[in-house]
Every structure is written in C-alpha cells, then in structure tokens.
Amino acid sequence: MNNQNETIAICGLGYVGYPVAMLFADAGFNVIGVDILEERVQRLNEGENPIKGQEPGLDELVEKVIKKGNFRATADVKEYCKADFIIVAVQTPVAEENKKPTYENLKAALRSIGQNMKKGVTVVIESTIAPGTMEHVVKPILEEESKMIAGKDFYLANCPERLMPGHLLENIRYYNRVVGGWTPESATKVKELYKHVIQGELEETDCITAEIVKAGENTYRDVQIAFANEMALLCEAYKANVWEVRKLINNCKKVTETRPEALRQMHFPGAGVGGHCIPKDSWLLIHEVRDIVNPKLIPTARYINDFMPIHMFELLESAVKEVGKEIKDLDVLVLGWAYDANSDDDRNTPTKPFIEKLEEAGVKYEIHDSFIDEYKGNIKEILKGKDAIVLMTGHDEYKGLKYEEILGVMNEKPIIIDGRNIFDKEKVRKAGFVYKGVGNI
Hints:
By secondary structure, the protein is of the alpha/beta class. Helices cover 42% and strands 13% of the residues. It holds the Pfam family UDPG_MGDP_dh.
C-alpha cells in the first residue's frame, strides 16, 4: 500500500476520530476529516487540537501533522467520493426512556457516505454498536444509498475503538484490536490498513463477533465497577474502609508456579460511571435479545452504577445532619464536571444527576473544573463562604489542595464528601472537616 496515494476519510472528529485522523496523516496518508460543524472544521484547519484534557503526545502530533499538510477538515460530504477508505467514528447513544440505541447520527452519516462513496472503497465502522447493527442498519443503508453490494462492489468491516481519555494515542497504537469483516477479504483489507498505525495484534473475525466483543468488554467493566460500588456500600454499613478492603483483595498473589499472578482484581468504586461507552454499551449488548434472555445481572449493574451520584447526595445529607445544619441552607462547591480525571470529556457525567438532586433540594452550588471552560476559576476564591465540598472527579489538581487554607475561607463546620478517594480522611478530619467518602465514612 502506497500511503501517499491513498486517501482516508474520517467521519466524525471527536475523541475517537480526531486522534485516528492524526495518526493516519502522520503515517503518510492523505486524510480528510468530515464533520458537520462548520465552526469546528474551521478551527481544525487552523491547527487547533479540539481535545483539551491531558493527552500525552497529542499536541505534538497535531503540530507535526499540520506542518506536513496532509490533513484537512471539511463539512462537505461530497468529499467522500475521493476516499479509498472511510472510517466512521460517530456517537451511538441510547434513549433515556427505554435504553434502546438511537442511531440518528450513525444513519445520517451512512446515508451521506452511501450517496458519495466510490466503487471499491473500504468502509470501516469504529463506533460501538449493538450486535446485529452491521447487518440490520449499516449494510442496508450503504447498499440502498450507493446501489452497490457489500463484499462485491465495496468492502465493509467494523473495527471497534478501545479508547480511554488520557490515553488516546497509547490505546490506539498499542491495544489489540478486533476486525470484523462482512467478508474475509474485507477484514484483511482493514487489517492491512490499520497496521500502519497499530502495533498491537489485529484479530480477524466476523461482524457480529466484533460487535459482541466491544459491547461485551465494556459491559464487563460496568459489572466489575458495580461490584466495587456495592462493596463500598457494604463497607459503609460495616464501618469499614473499602480502599483497604480492595487493596487486600487485590493482594492475592501467586503462591505456586501453577497459579496465575493476579488472582483477584477488584475495580475502583466511586461517585458514578460516565463517558460515552460504559453507561450505554451494556444496553447495546442486550438490545436485540433482551426479551429472549431476560438478563438480570447486567441491568442490575447499570442500576447500581447509576445510583452512585444519588448516594453522593445521601452522604451529603448525612453529613449535614451531623453538623446540625439544613440541606436547603447549604452553599456547596462541586469539584469536577468531566466524567474522568484530567479530561475535558463530560459525556454522561455522573455530576449531572448529582446536581439535579441538589437543585431538587434547593441547594445553592457552584461547579469547578479546570478542563471545562465554563467551570474554570480560582478554587480558593470560589470556596469563600461555602459549607461543603463535594468531589465528583479525581483531577490531579484537587489532590494538592491545602486543607488548612481552604478551611480558613469556608463556613463553620465545613464538610467534604469524597467520591474518588482523593482526600486523606484522617488529615481532613484533624484539620476540622466533617468527612464522608464513598466506602469510607
């Protein structure tokens, strides 16, 4: 494959599509980024990195690619006709009311691609989708709009991303990936393409298996986090420290040559689960067969993880009673709007349902998050006259807060509710705070 003669179009330039575009451009391909937002397109063409969280190496890569000049962004979907490969990386949410996938963005993207793609193109879906979507949604729309047949006139595959904020380039380069081909030839074409940017293993399979693998691995994480969260609730009831419990559970080491190193791996409990993937991928996994299988574990795990922001409010209520105040009289600083530490990604942030509980109770509040423009500010200044700090996101910045300094600007009997085990319980209590943390009250 001669990279300089091959053109790749990336549909969607968010947390997945943009770093993928940068890596392929750096590998020598001509890359066209397609995004429906004109203002975003303009900023990208000016060399702005749209991802503002801590992403090692991304700023340097963007600068390098812009100097090369083989990436450009556009809102013109007709540009798809120039592409030898089209990679789709658009959001695939689920509806809040029934937890079913809503594919408006994906379907619109597929219609635009189908109407403009050329014969012989390879279309790759990186978006996480429910099992059966390649067969029942992706392939029919592309064939209908293009008047071509998958596997005969164009190649079709899904290669689900495996990304986490804060590790985008690392995850793309070094994680193994699954390539699901509509035909074996399609999988091979995509594998050969991705070898240019991925050093991990590329495993070929069929579309349905790749769909199940991606939704399944995120569901696995969701269930494991739910277990950790329920353990935290149990530890609170037992007046134990879940973080000490977790450490000792995970310290189960190999004792003979025939046993594996890591026998246990309890995940982190916390204030809630956010991001584009985990809160909805469990629903994607069970979507097509929910009525047949009647799954119980997976929906229960979703319920537990969705409950944790509500539990943060319960902890706040408990602390308020302890200091003899009324919840409606509080003035609270909420630390963290992004869903993950040191990231600007606020999709499905657990802070939102927590804020809704504050509003229902008539609590006055402010939000701080250095990675979100709307919520930037001097923490010490914002804390003046506050009754409580509620930590929802474990940004590194919050680890450096000096307890005595913030105590001096807050109201009497100040409260800390710690959703990410950032604060030292004994030190903050010694300083004069009332402290309650998830799994450690």
